[in-house]
Design a protein that fits this description.
With 139 residues, the protein is mainly beta. 6% of the residues lie in helices and 44% in strands. It has one helix at residues 22-30; strands spanning 33-37, 44-50, 55-61, 71-75, 78-84, 87-92, 95-100, 105-111, 120-125, 132-136. The strands form 2 sheets. It has a 7-stranded antiparallel β-sheet, with no helix packed on it. Strands 1-10-4 form a 3-stranded antiparallel β-sheet, with no helix packed on it. The two termini are 35 Å apart. The relative contact order is 0.29.
């Protein structure tokens, strides 16, 4: 016995049944939680800029406005591939964190070693296809 689409009302006046699309429901859920998952080896999620020999800065746009500034947890391995006139450098990241937060865009900082100041490059998983970033703005 399956029931779907039932709405209970208090009182004698019925209101219209509220229908939401999958996209609407997803956006409402993403106000509280969003997870970026590496889809293939070397998936990229953002661009960054080396501000020192150990720091890479980046602004990450969330897919929807969250209800509060989220916290970040990561799993797997990440890398930064910096490009300059001499070619490219591949550096594994030792940490990835939110440096300044907002409900829509986050100022992120990654830490590595041996970076070249001024390099611009891409953030992504390190090739093992195991990287995730979870953004949580739970109540």
């Amino acid at each position: 016995f399956d029931i779907t689409g039932v709405q209970l009302e208090v009182g004698s006046v019925a209101t219209d049944f509220e229908h939401k699309s999958y996209a609407q429901e997803l956006a409402l859920c993403q106000r509280y939680f969003y997870k970026w998952v590496s889809s293939v080896a070397y998936s990229n999620f953002n661009l960054g800029y080396c501000t020192s020999a150990t720091n890479v800065e980046s602004i990450y746009q969330l897919p929807t406005i969250m209800r509060a500034t989220p916290s970040l947890s990561t799993s797997g391995t990440f890398r930064f591939v910096g490009v300059n006139a001499d070619g490219q450098d591949n550096s594994n990241l030792s940490s990835l964190s939110i440096n300044r937060g907002h409900t829509r865009s986050l100022y992120m900082r990654a830490v590595s070693s041996g970076l070249n100041v001024g390099q611009v490059g891409e953030f992504g998983d390190s090739g093992s296809n195991d990287a995730t970033m979870s953004f949580s703005a739970e109540l």
